[in-house]
Amino acid sequence: MGIFRRMWALGRRSKLDREIDEELREHMRLRVDADVAKGMTPDEAIRRARLRFGNPTVVKERVDAEDAALGFESFFRDARYAVRGFVKSPGFTIVAVLTLALGIGANTAVFQILDAVRLRSLPIQNPQDLAELRIVGGNKGFGVNDSPFANFTIPMWQEVRRHHDPFSDVMAWRSNGVLVGKLTDAKHVNGLEVSGNFFNVLGVAPWQGRLIEPQDEGSCEMSKVVASYSFWKSQMGGATITPNTTIILEGRTVQVLGVTPPGFFGMVVGDRFDLAFPTCTPPNVRREMFLFTVMGRLKPGWTMERASAYFGSLSPGLFENAMPTGYSADAVKIFKAYRLAAYPAGGGVSYLRDAYDSSLQLLLAITGLVLLIACANLANLMLARASARKREMAIRMALGASRRQLLRQLLIGSSLLALSGAMLGVLLAQPLSRLLVASLSTSQGSIQLSIVTDWRVLLFAAGVAVLTCIVFGTIPAMRGTSVDPISSLKSGERGVAGSRERFSVQRLLVVTQIAVSMVLLVGALLFVHSYRNLITASPGMREAGISGFYAGFSTMHIKQENEAAFKRQLVELVQSVHGVQNAAATTHVPMGGSSWGHGVHVGTQDGGSHFTYAGPGYFATMGIPLVRGRSFTAMDTTNAPHVLMVNQAFVRRYFGATDPIGQLVQVLPEPQYPARTYQIVGTVADTKYNGVREATTDPEAFVPIDQVPETAQGPFAAIMFASENGPATVAAVRSTIAARYPEMILQFFDFRQGIRDNLVGDRMMAMLSGFFGVLAALLVVVGLYGVLSYFIAQRRNEIGIRVALGANRGRVIGLVLRDTVWMLAIGVVVGTVLALVAGRAATTMLFGLKPYDAATLVFSILLLAVIAVLASLLPAFKASRLNPVDALRCE
Amino acid sequence: MAKNDLQGALDLLILKTLSQLGAMHGYGIAVHIEEVSDALLTVEEGSLYPALHRMEQSGWLRAEWAVTESSRKAKFYSLTAAGKKQLAAREKNWEQVVKGVQAILRFA
User: Fold this and answer.
1) Residue A495, pLDDT score
2) What is the spatial distance between Cα A308 and Cα A487, in angstroms, rounded to a whole number?
3) Span A182-199, mean pLDDT?
4) Do residues A725 and A767 both lie within one domain?
5) Which residues in chain A are closer than 8 Å to B56, comparing Cβ atoms?
């Protein structure tokens, strides 16, 4: 192909050039020869040929333009020219590229996280074929739920394992923490309990050794595990796996079969598993425990809809067979009405998706707006540059350059800026998104998210770069090239007053900046205010100086009937530590995320309530005021009459105006919790149950912890204690227990810190929106300052004349400020409307205030006004000090 | 009908000229078109050379430097196989265009 030959000829431009020149010259000569042969004088012939031929440069350029290689080269020439221009004004270039890099980087960073949390598929074979089975609408709190992803009980899983026509195979898994190392020095790691075919269904191949296979399922004695790559590297030194490789797990020596590949982090996006081990069916299955997530691989030809229809029709029989025993008739009815359906699961499951989805989208919008402001600033800078080059453009046009050529040159310049900004931005995005993820870490754990710059991220960054280029490059380029050569050359660098039209574009840009930054400022104030409301909101109980711990003592082999007594001893031990004011055991740590409830029958009413089993000192420890009646005492033991304390919400729900003291409450039966009748002995004030955001309080009932049915006892306890001098006392409690019971597994937490941990998302929104709000305000200052300075430079003569004619300083300053006030007024009006519209998107994320908070709006407007006036004062003073003689003479 | 049929007339003229003359330089092509059309058609240099270069790049023409009868050096263009195919297609197309245009003109 000719084109390749020409490409090859690239770099031999001078040769090609010469060739074309020569060809055209020969053409002229041939014509002259012919005319001379016809009898014309040579001079006459040359003149005629020239006239006919026209401007040789233009003809040559038209030939050049047809030449792909030369066209390509002229592209490079334009790029080189642009680079030279940028090198000559390094200040402008650095500001432009850095602004773009920060803007694009911030956008890419947020998108990168969205990509990792939401868009990316698991690193498995054909993720689009993976389907998860779930009960349509969830199980509505039936039974005991191990985690938000636990949708299957063991009997349900066994049923599906037998019947799954749409799937080539089906597997189950659950996250289940395990202890690694000797018990006295054990470490809690993320365990992944999997059915034998888990890795086969996913199509994950071993990195080393082998993975869990169907034959490994069986014994409930833990004997074989598979390590994740990161665990293998960090905890096992990355040593080669041999049949003799072992690890101590839950106090037993188990064999390590192999290692999963580096990319495979498990099934939960945002978590990383450490060890995977085969599941088993224990001898006494608790049929009401929802434990597993069940996933299958669709057979070719099956769709999610068809699979859902299949499992829907399978459901009645399945739930009939999987029915747990010991429930009331109503509960049975609910269970039997469940329907299974298949949902795409190629992206795994994630807590983050639900928790931070809307935050991330909002953040993306915020960073987008910041980028828009930055682009407006750049556009203004470019406009100023373009008008400085007006004369150059006019001369080039007069010499025969077409508008298209000039336009192309300017656009190549701005795309170069956008490209450099985007590349730097992509590099910046990595640390930025890591920072963002780190800001969501809590005292109890951090988010494990593999953030990679994949094709989606690159595509996004490229798209953003193109958009920014269009926004900041096009208008200045159009303006810059729409010059009328004659009037431009005549009027010189500065007119008496520039054309009004040009000014209006820059004004429009500033107004846009003010409006957009108003939206960002309002958003920032709302989120910061909301976060302050959240951290100052009272949970209805004491927060300061409250600590607690979870204790596990399965390794101590205490008989079930002695567990209650042992827990009492433990509380007494804590109480005896110096500095502990009060201590009590409880089955529910408020704001801790867990929840427990029973169905109740009160008088003629049926309903439900939260149930917490708490020790005698619980209300004193947590500072929950007693409203009526009495609190629990040490006398409320297993053999004493069953007593109950309820909160005010319970009273409102079931008694209204009736005195609740002495009333009876029947608890409906459940496995391990037989039907019982309690008598109410006291009422307490309402508290929050699981989060400060709770708008209403649910009924909650308290039972003495000694009266937990013996069948429901277990080798674990949660104990809360109050102390004056926090950390020292906590350390003392820890060492006291560790000294007495070295085999006990302990996990301490700070109550207030726990509450704060639940608010990291809000903290992130407050911090980031605040940061971007300030950034937006700064950009407005810079933009306004730049534009006003430029206007004043343009109007030097006019101002000089005014001063010469007797205008005083105040008048000149007023002239400049009038401009500002106009732009500010329009920007603020538009901004208010936009902020109100945008605020609706954030309604659900705000706490304790409305998105149309009048005080916030007024404050933002005032803030912007102060910023705008400050930004215009400097140029205004400069203008007022203008020496009229200098200004007029320089023309 | 292709979009640039009417504008493609110049290409057609050049291709046809080269098929009649064999190898020829730009000036010769321009002169030939003028003479054969009894000066009804004149070819502007500003259009002729861009067209020649475009067609050379498309692979329809081949170019070689050679010496003219008047012993001047010139770039001679000749048709390639692809060029001949292109000419046949364009000729057929042109007839259609002419028919179409005439039909429009006669319509009253």
Assistant:
1) 47
2) 74
3) 83
4) no
5) 2
Task: Judge whether A428 and A101 are in contact, CB under 8 Å.
Answer: yes
Task: Tell me the β-bridge partners of A448.
Answer: A270
Residue A513 covered by a domain: no
Cβ atoms within 10 Å, residue A562: 11
Question: Using the beta-carbon criterion (under 8 Å), do A2 and B31 form an inter-chain contact?
Answer: no
Q: ∠ at Cα A25 (A21, A31), nearest 5°?
A: 155
Q: Is residue A751 part of a domain?
A: no
Residues on B contacting A at a C-beta cutoff of 8 Å = 25-28, 31, 44-46, 49-51, 53-54, 56-59, 68, 70, 72-75
Dist CA A558 CA A16 (whole Å) = 95
**A419, A467: one domain:** yes
CB contact under 8 A, B57 and A53: no
Number of domains making up chain A = 5
Domain of A626, in residue numbers: 554-743
On whether the CB atoms of residues A247 and A254 are closer than 8 A, the answer is: yes
Please check the confidence at residue A793 and state whether its pLDDT lies above 70.
yes
What is the tens place of the pLDDT at every residue in A522-581?
Answer: 999 999 999 999 888 888 899 888 999 888 887 788 888 888 888 899 999 999 998 899
Helix or strand run (H / E) with residue A253: strand A252-259
> Domain for residue A154, yes or no?
yes
What are the residue boundaries of the structural domains of chain B, listed by start?
A: 9-106
ipTM: 0.83
pLDDT above 50 (res A497): no
CB-CB neighbours of A865 under 10 Å: 16
Average pLDDT, chain A: 85
Q: What is the pLDDT of residues A608-666, one digit of tens each?
A: 899 999 999 899 999 999 999 999 998 888 888 999 999 999 999 999 888 999 999 99
CATH fold of B9-106, please?
Arc Repressor Mutant, subunit A (1.10.10)
Which one of A322, A346, A370 terminates a domain? A346
| Secondary structure of residue A564 in the 3-state scheme | helix
Chain A: give the shortest CA distance to residue B85, in Å: 16
Retrieve residue A27's tokens: 């053409």
Could you report the per-residue pLDDT of B66-78, keeping only the tens digit for each?
A: 888 778 888 899 9
A683 falls in which pLDDT band (50, 70, 90)?
Answer: very high
pLDDT grade for A11, boundaries at 50, 70 and 90:
low
| Residue length of chain A | 891
Reply yes or no on whether the pLDDT at A108 is more than 70. yes
Q: Residue B53 is nearest to which of A26, A53, A67, comparing CB atoms? A: A67
Probe site for chain B from A1, A15, A20, A30 (most B CB atoms < 10 A): A30
**Biggest CA-to-CA distance, chain B:** 56
Examine the domain organization and report whether A615 and A529 are in the same domain.
no
Decide if B57 and A30 are in contact by the 8 Å CB cutoff: no
Is the residue at A167 inside a domain?
yes
Using CB atoms and an 8 Å cut-off, which of residues 57-76 of chain A contact chain B?
A: 58-59, 62-63, 65-68
Residues A717 and A605 grouped into a single domain = yes
- The pLDDT value given to residue B2: 43
**Which of A3, A6, A26 is the best mutation test for B, with the most CBs of B within 10 A?**
A26
Q: Which residue of B has its CA nearest to A59?
A: B46
User: Cβ–Cβ of A26/B45 closer than 8 Å?
Assistant: no
Locate all alpha helices (DSSP H) within chain B, ordered by sequence: 9-21, 26-36, 45-57, 81-106
Q: Are residues A77 and A138 in the same domain?
A: no
